[in-house]
């Protein structure tokens, strides 16, 4: 009887430790997810573009891009976005954008997971860019 009680106490302690560790792991993953994607403002992106050392990628659909694109951006639709296929050796920082920021946030998460470094995207997307009267070109 005593050995059964001791085993039960040991099991309860192990279960409690495992639960505490799972909570810590979840909290750490949440912090990593929050810091792996950096939202840029329109002004921050415009400044980076002016600096000239970024690779700007538009992850919108073809029909959306046909309406206008940020000058200098390349188009890789989110469905085709594969961070492993990107040539990241030229030293340019990758910045992503989409219509509202949702899809570029997904692409940024993928890029951050691939590189192990935070990835940047335009918060508010091209909607925010347009509202700030920033330039666009038609491809």
Strand residue percentage: 5-15%
Report the mean per-residue pLDDT as an integer.
Answer: 85
Tally of strands = 5
How many helices? The count is 5
Order of helices and strands: HEHEHEEHEH
The chain-level structural class is alpha/beta
How far is it from the N-terminal to the C-terminal residue, by CA?
A: 79 Å
Uncertain stretches:
5-11, 23-33
* Rg over C-alpha atoms, rounded to the nearest angstrom: 22 Å
The strand order across the widest sheet is 1-5-4-2-3
Q: Please give the largest β-sheet.
A: 5 strands, parallel
Please tell me what the overall shape is.
globular
Report the helical percentage.
40-55%
Describe what you observe in this structure.
The protein is α/β, with parallel strands linked by helices. Helices cover about 50% and strands about 15% of the residues. The protein contains five helices and five strands. The protein has a five-stranded parallel β-sheet. α3 links the parallel β2 (about 55-60) and β3. The N and C termini lie far apart (about 80 Å).
Short structural description:
This protein has 139 residues and is of the alpha/beta class.
Helix and strand layout, with pairings?
Blueprint: H1 2-36, E1 37-40, H2 42-51, E2 54-58, H3 62-65, E3 74-75, E4 93-97, H4 102-115, E5 119-122, H5 125-131
Core attributes:
139 residues, alpha/beta, 50% helix
